[in-house]
Specification:
Length: about 350
């Protein structure tokens, strides 16, 4: 729930870049091609979705995914090393407009649909599913569930390899919307969920950690403030995790970051210039990267960063606002983005960070 002083240009960009799935799972007719990127992938895994067709691509290969059924809409993909798993939403086929989750898994044995976990009690809308991956295997799923997008709970279930464990409520419905759900599994096996939640005044970034079968109580990732904090991304690092999100700062959005280590988060610090929004974090053999929108000048910015989100080098691919691209490759010359439109790719040269 974006509130307080949202500039018109930022609002237009938010509608154009539209990262979350729409409340109704059915994809609108004529929806442009979209690319979904696995946050952690040595192969650079990207899922290209065009209408009811999907295709998995990586640096040295590609394969078709099962044709999507009517109304199905994919929202996330994760790399399983020798395969991948994608999650989406679709109409439940009931008169009340309910939605349900579907999952597609692919490996050397082929492609198949997994039975989704059981819903939480009383939630007719199931939105924004995010796979939880541990050591190259599907370990669980987190999603939003409720009777209305502004009254959704954060819920999760574990995957045993043969079926789903019980669905658990991580964060019950609050004073307003919960959105921007993201997940990361740490090296020692615990899982972090990070999301944005309206507290009655503005949006704040919340988090919870799972150890064993239990989820910790939701807590603020940063000290409370009177400005919106939105669109978080999170990724595991060698010694913990890194989160990046957008905060309204002096009339414009700007990315902030925080590092998770020793069970707590560091004080937030700026991670990009004013006019930055919609961050995603990606880790591969090539390094750790932050991809985000830049409003001055307009384009998609790619930064190679360290575990504390300090920029090592940066590049900007000029572009008009539109669906989020994917980071297709990065080498000594510069990064290459996989754009949503058709099979287009665009590159830019690195600029050393002063």
């Amino acid at each position: 729930m974006l509130r307080r002083g949202l500039p018109f240009a930022t609002l237009a960009l938010a509608l154009a870049a539209a990262a979350p799935a729409p409340p109704a799972a059915a994809a609108p007719r004529g929806r442009p091609t979209e690319v979904l990127q696995a946050p952690e992938s040595d192969r650079g895994l990207v899922l290209v979705v065009s209408g009811r067709r999907a295709r998995a691509e990586w640096r040295h290969g590609r394969e078709r995914a099962p044709r999507l059924r009517r109304g199905e809409y994919l929202v996330s993909v994760a790399d399983l090393g020798r395969g991948w798993v994608a999650a989406g939403v679709r109409p439940a086929g009931t008169a009340d407009g309910a939605t349900e989750i579907f999952l597609i898994e692919a490996d050397s044995g082929g492609r198949r649909r997994l039975r989704p976990p059981a819903p939480a009690a009383g939630g007719k809308l199931r939105l924004r599913p995010v796979p939880i991956v541990e050591r190259g295997r599907l370990a669980g799923l987190a999603w939003l569930e409720g009777d209305h997008p502004r009254r959704a709970a954060v819920v999760a279930a574990d995957w045993t390899g043969a079926g789903w464990g019980p669905t658990r409520t991580v964060s019950p419905p609050g004073r307003g919307s919960q959105s921007g759900l993201a997940a990361a599994t740490l090296g020692e096996g615990s899982t972090l969920l990070v999301w944005s939640a309206f507290d009655g005044e503005d949006d704040e970034i919340l988090w919870s950690r799972r150890r064993g079968e239990g989820w910790g109580a939701p807590s603020r990732l940063h000290p409370g403030n009177a400005t919106p904090d939105v669109t978080p991304a999170v990724i595991a690092t060698r010694r913990g995790a890194l989160a990046v999100w957008g905060r309204l700062d002096g009339g414009a959005y700007r990315l902030y970051s925080s590092r998770f280590a020793g069970g707590s988060w560091s004080p937030p610090r700026p991670a990009a210039a004013a006019g930055s929004l919609f961050p995603t974090l990606h880790r591969s053999r090539q390094g750790l990267f932050l991809l985000h929108w830049s409003a001055a000048p307009d384009g998609w910015a790619v930064a190679e960063i360290d575990a504390e989100a300090r920029t090592l080098r940066r590049a900007l691919v000029p572009a008009a606002p539109g669906p989020r691209p994917a980071l297709a490759a990065s080498d000594g010359e510069g990064p290459t983005l996989r754009l949503a439109a058709g099979r287009r790719r665009a590159g830019a040269a690195w600029s050393p960070q002063p």
